Amino acid sequence: MTQPQIPVPEPDEASRPFFDGAAEGRLMLMRCADCGTWRLPSRQHCDACLSDRFTWEAASGRGTVRTFGIMHQRYHPAFQVPYNVTIVELEEGPRLPTNLVDVANEDIRVGMPVEVVFERYDDVTLPRFRPAGRL
Amino acid sequence: MPHPLRGAAAITGLGMTPMGRIYRSTSELAAEAVAKAIADAGLKKDDIDGLLINAGITGTTGGGLTLGLQNYLGLRNLRLLNHMNAAGSTAAQMVQYATMAIHAGMATHVVCVFADAPLKEGTSAGAAYGGAARNPQRPRGMAGLYAAAGYFGANTPYALAARRHMALYGTKQDHLGIIAVGQRQWATMNPLAQMREPITLEDYHASRWIIEPLHLLDCCLVSNGAVAVIVSPADRAKEMPQPPVYIHGMGQGHPGDSGRAGSDWETETGAKFAAETAYRMAGVGPADFTQCQIYDCYTYTVLVTLEDYGFCKKGEGGPFVEDGKLGPGGSLPTNTGGGELSAYYMWGMTPLSEAVIQGRGHGGERQAKNDLILVTGNGGSLSYHACLILSPHPA
Q1: How confident is the model over B68-89, as pLDDT tens digits?
Q2: Do A110 and B167 touch (CB under 8 A)?
Q3: With an 8 Å Cβ cutoff, are B167 and A85 in contact?
Q4: Which among B8, B154, B330, B347 has most CB atoms closer than 10 A?
Q5: What domains can you pick out in chain B, each with its CATH number?
């Protein structure tokens, strides 16, 4: 029996640049063309000024751990508990739900610097994060 | 000059079903609660001219109350009707809108009802709120990033919020545990409570992790049941059979989207706005409360809410609760029925129903000083908040 796969999202029209970017190793966000505020895809309107003019831009991929939890409840068979659920606050401001990799659960700290890595699943690539500055 | 809404209305009726694994439809549960509330208030069905409805989680997952409840109840004289949802803040909000409508002359006796029945025979409590993990469809678009990260259930955002509070302010696991233990002590004195076995701090630490830093005993129950209250004009309330519980103040605050850049949603909630509005309306401050009924979907919610109402400074909620002041015999009796953690989970009706029992002086051996009662409701991921300030004394 094969290991069940985690529920990976299927890109839709509005989010396609994000997932296409991830497949090419770039973390693509939306940015308001009027006030410059970055936002997570995929909203047509800026939540700072309500403008609907935007561009897609690559984020730095750097951020910090805003907060995290260590999940012990088995909600889905593909996740081996315990695992971390982490919110990364990107340098650009938006916050991304994700997991940290290459770090033990007990070593995760709020505020620790992290950087993006990309993990490929069958037809979708997802951003994960690892402690920054490691070779 | 006092605020015109201060003391304008009172809660005159309360009806509750049994709580827990009660396998009945939400309409049947609601009807039982409404019938009990009408009888409790000494009214007849045709006296009811307002109905406000809150469906609970089954409003989203299926089988929840709808506007059709009016017809199930055969209410023919309604001058006010709505189906409302701002999550756990809805119960307090229903009483707020009822009060405003009564003050404006739009209605006289308004029923506010909540019913929910997420528990199904043979399934776990967790299954009732698990959400995306059980969805066989592949998630679409950015919303799917949550499931892809294993971010499931309501437990996750509250664990994330509690963790950040711990990191910023040094809040300890013990502080959360003391809240759980104190509320269970209260529940041992509440015949309506689902969990009445006392627990110790050691039991708390030994209870399994759900998602660190939340143990099982940090998380609320899941219950089937219904609660209805009736709001009436203050001058009518005096003539009605139950001791009136007057509404002295109310407020709301909704910080919204937890993903927004710059938001401190984890540690600063909508309670701050709600407190400002309600304190001004009632002409009171935090030192005036003799008891609190605080929405407690998680232990952490109690801690952060007390901070935002100014009972202590931001970040000092842990040391504030450390001496057990929220429990029986403490200086700030809080969640005196056991709350959502230990008694029953009827969203915002849990704190409200206990506040009515306490406001009437019907708390029996758990009765606490009731001169001024703070009732709060919170929902989403600390996204929505509403409150009431209640008292047995007219304004």
Answers
A1: 999 999 999 999 999 999 999 9
A2: yes
A3: no
A4: B347
A5: 9-120+221-391 (3.40.47.10)
